[in-house]
């Protein structure tokens, strides 16, 4: 049976998708490269909107474009994540940004999106094209590594 | 005693999200054809303050980027032809004694090509429509993502699934050692396949039609697509 395809404008879609694409690429590549890759990927999405708008998982597709863009970007010797500002001390460990950056990519993405940006397990699974159980495993392993790295018991 | 790690992550990344200006896709996009994108500058290495710059892009939705690039190349080619014609005219008016006897014959180069081709993950080979001649300089740049059949959990770019020997056994013959599901190419219907990945530049040593494909012997249950931009500078 042929399905009716409903298309929305790029602007409508981008209003909701922009934070997710920026946050996911920031989780994967850090605040600077992630932001630039998100801008480039959204520009590509706009150029190809006729095709992107009818995709089943446009955010996942645009995230994939951003991931490829980010991997081609020249990274300078700078930390992925900014230092913990004074107002968050001492509740947030000063070593948290570096510890998150040291996690394997999949664990870093899942931990950051789930616990840092408040995504649901389903949203992360859809972005990465994976199962929720896989997301959960990555997140649990990532959290354990962070606790060990920072000497936090809970 | 520190807060639980989940709480620390939430507080920290909430701060990151607030200080990271969003990519502005709304202002000019509503009044196409201009889109403004805000990109971070890369000079804030150890600070929490992000500086931003606005980059204005002007793609025309009614005219594909490929088309506009092609027009630019056509214009460049026309300019080159006019220049060459001018040179021929100018030299024809000079005194024969000042023209070297071994002056090389002037030739007009063939027009360069730039096309964008969608390579579906479910097609073994896709005809790009690009005819190559020996000594053409070919640049292929690709992005997009394809999910391999053996692992629907992840999307992989044109470089394929990295370091997965168990998946490489499903590669096509001739490219068993390359990453599974990566972007590949061949010249002609029966040409030997070669690795393309996300970028390949080479000088053609075979003439014929360029095909792009997926390094997977069974593409039927893949999903996704790559998009390749092919630029050919004629010899």
Give keywords.
heterodimer, A: 154 residues, mainly alpha, 8 helices, B: 235 residues, alpha+beta, 4-stranded antiparallel β-sheet, 10 strands, 20% helix
Task: Describe what you observe in this structure.
- The complex is a heterodimer of chains A (154) and B (235).
- With 154 residues, chain A is mostly helical.
- Chain A is 66% helix and 0% strand.
- Chain A has helices at 10-29, 31-47, 49-52, 58-72, 96-102, 105-116, 121-128, 132-150.
- The longest helix of chain A is centred in the N-terminal third of the chain and has 20 residues, at 10-29.
- Chain A is globular.
- Chain A starts with 9 loop residues before the first helix and ends with a helix.
- Residues 1-5 of chain A have low confidence and may be disordered.
- With 235 residues, chain B is of the alpha+beta class.
- In chain B, 20% of the residues lie in helices and 29% in strands.
- In chain B, the strands form 3 sheets. Chain B has a 4-stranded antiparallel β-sheet, with helices on one face. Chain B has a 4-stranded antiparallel β-sheet with strand order 4-9-6-7, with no helix packed on it. Chain B has a two-stranded antiparallel ribbon with strand order 1-2.
- In chain B, strand 6 (183-187) and strand 7 form a beta hairpin.
- Chains A and B meet through helix 1, helix 2, helix 4, helix 5 and helix 6 of A and helix 1, strand 1 and strand 5 of B.
């Amino acid at each position: 049976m042929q399905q009716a395809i409903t298309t929305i404008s790029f602007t409508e879609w981008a209003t909701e998708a922009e934070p997710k694409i920026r946050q996911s690429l920031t989780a994967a590549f850090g605040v600077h490269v992630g932001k630039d890759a998100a801008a480039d990927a959204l520009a590509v999405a706009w150029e190809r909107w006729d095709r992107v708008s009818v995709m089943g998982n446009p955010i996942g597709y645009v995230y994939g474009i951003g991931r490829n863009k980010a991997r081609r970007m020249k990274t300078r010797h700078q930390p992925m994540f900014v230092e913990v500002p004074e107002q968050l001390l001492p509740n947030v460990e000063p070593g948290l940004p570096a510890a998150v950056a040291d996690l394997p990519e999949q664990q870093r993405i899942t931990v950051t999106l789930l616990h840092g940006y408040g995504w649901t397990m389903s949203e992360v699974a859809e972005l990465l094209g994976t199962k929720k159980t896989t997301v959960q495993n990555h997140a649990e392993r990532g959290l354990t590594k962070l606790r060990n790295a920072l000497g936090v018991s809970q | 005693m520190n807060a639980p790690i989940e709480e620390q992550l939430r507080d920290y990344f909430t701060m990151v999200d607030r200080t990271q200006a969003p990519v502005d896709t709304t202002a000019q996009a509503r009044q196409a054809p201009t889109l403004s994108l805000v990109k971070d500058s890369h000079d804030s290495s150890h600070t929490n303050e992000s500086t931003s710059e606005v980059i204005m892009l002007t793609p025309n939705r009614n005219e594909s980027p490929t088309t506009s690039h092609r027009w630019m190349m056509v214009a460049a080619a026309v300019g080159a032809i006019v220049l060459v014609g001018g040179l021929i005219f100018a030299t024809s008016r000079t005194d024969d004694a000042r023209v070297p006897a071994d002056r090389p014959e002037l030739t007009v180069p063939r027009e360069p090509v730039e096309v964008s081709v969608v390579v579906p993950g479910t097609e073994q080979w896709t005809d790009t429509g690009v005819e190559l001649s020996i000594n053409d300089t070919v640049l292929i740049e690709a992005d997009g993502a394809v999910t391999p059949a053996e692992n629907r959990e992840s999307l992989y770019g044109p470089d394929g699934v990295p370091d997965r020997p168990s998946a490489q056994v499903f590669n096509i013959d001739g490219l068993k050692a390359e990453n599974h599901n990566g972007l590949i190419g061949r010249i002609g219907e029966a040409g030997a396949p070669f690795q393309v990945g996300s970028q390949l530049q080479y000088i053609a040593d075979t003439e014929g039609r360029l095909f792009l494909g997926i390094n997977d012997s069974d593409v039927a249950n893949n999903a996704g697509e790559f998009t390749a931009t092919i630029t050919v500078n004629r010899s």
